[in-house]
Amino acid sequence: MRMHRGSSKGEAAERRSPETLPLSASRPSIEVVVEVARAGRPEIRREEVLPGTTVRELLRRIGRAPEGCAVLVDEVSVPLDLPLEHAVRLVVVPTFSGG
User: Fold this and answer.
1) CA 79, CA 77: separation in Å to the nearest integer?
2) Angle, vertex CA 92, rays to CA 65 and CA 33, nearest 5
3) Mean pLDDT to the nearest integer, 53-57
4) What is d(CA 74, CA 83) in angstroms, rounded to the nearest whole number?
5) Euclidean distance between CA atoms 58 and 2, whole angstroms
6) Looking at the DSSP assignment, which residues form a beta bridge with residue 34?
7) Confidence grade of residue 51 (pLDDT, cut at 50, 70, 90)
């Protein structure tokens, strides 16, 4: 039996885009160290997030109100809508007591 060109299953696998991941592959994540400043000892957490996660989303994930915090990277304030693209250390300074 003769098969016509392009109908082979082997060829389809070779043409697959390199960006296509198999279903079993997990998306890459980045580690973010979050230091919440406190009067006594700071609270330090390590969180795994997907690239593109915003600072605001991360704050909500750890149970902090984004609008009630200042966030610093290397002692410089960063916007809450900043997308996280690589491993970083964030210092979170609560700006109100909540009570």
Assistant:
1) 7
2) 110
3) 98
4) 16
5) 57
6) 45, 90
7) very high
Quick check: 83 pLDDT over 90? Answer: yes
Alpha-carbon distance of 72 to 28, in angstroms, equals 24
- The token duo for 31 is 């580690």
Dist CA 36 CA 94 (whole Å)? 8
Tell me, letter by letter, the H, E, C secondary structure of the chain: CCCCCCCCHHHHHHCCCCCCCCCCCCCCCEEEEEEECCCCCCEEEEEEECCCCEHHHHHHHCCCCHHHEEEEECCEECCCCCECCCCEEEEEEECCCCC
pLDDT of residue 13 exceeding 70:
no
